[in-house]
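Standup, Tuesday
Yesterday: got the pipeline producing structure tokens again.
Today: sanity-check two examples.
Blockers: none.

Example 1:
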Amino acid sequence: MKHFAIVVAVASTIVLAGCGGAGASAPVGSGSPAAAVQPSDAAPSASDAGGGASGDLSAQFGGDVCSALTKADVEAATYPQGPAAFSSTDTQKDANTGKAVVCQYLVTFGGGPSVVGVAVSLMDATEFATRVQASMIAPPEAVPGVGTEAYLVAPAPGLFEVWVSGPHGHFKVGAQAKATAIALATIATGRN
């Protein structure tokens, strides 16, 4: 029941968020649950176990979570709304370290307002293990060939995340389409 309340709260936040600009820690939405991707939970804390040396998650992807995907990767992705134009990135920072641990890739569709097209969120091993509880729509599905271990998680209607354990540690890539989330997680996993 608690997870249902969280999903309802996240969906309500997406609906009520309206069109947003880039803020340091505010999620961006577009007024429609189908038009925005939101991380399924708050930014992880650097003090969480399993985040690398001294628990600092921000060391993943060479210290820049937004380097997980490029402008070309984001624009080449397939979205339910059609072709996207890259707009900018927005980050959410760890409350303890002030370092970015979530990167939201903002896109526009047909000249409309910027919305989150995809998001990459860094995780620790403990959070990675919660994928069963986070998957509200269906049980997590193993995704072969991505990292050392990867799962497709559906935390809310219209949101798909691929939770990856690989060379960059643990992270998840969220998008509105299953194939898009898998394709972008595969790219991020191979990023140097």
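Example 2:
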Amino acid sequence: MPYKDAEQKREWERLHRKERRARRRELRREEAAREEPRPEAQSLIGGASSLLLPLAAGGALAAYNPKLAIGAGGLTLAVAIFYKKDWSWWIAGMLLLVVGVFIQWNLKTEGE
């Protein structure tokens, strides 16, 4: 709207007010949809310090039945992948898997 005459500019704005308002409303809706807050998934584990309890439980499970520990480790890794959990879930799953496989391997070598 490069008007040199201020009166012509005011007249143009008066005539196109509805269109300008509709366009601004549409832009606000688009911006609100883009910036809509997405709620974070709630964490089941508070922090890295609370990683010890699941590991202790996994160690006891591995001593009782290594196959269950392997399954629990795999399930923990699957949850970490699916829900995009932090590194502590990955470490817990890997440790459960490794301890379960190690104990299972020891039981097989002792049996032979």
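Quick observation on example 2: Helices lie at 6-15, 17-34, 52-64, 66-82, 87-111. The two ends are 90 Å apart (CA to CA).
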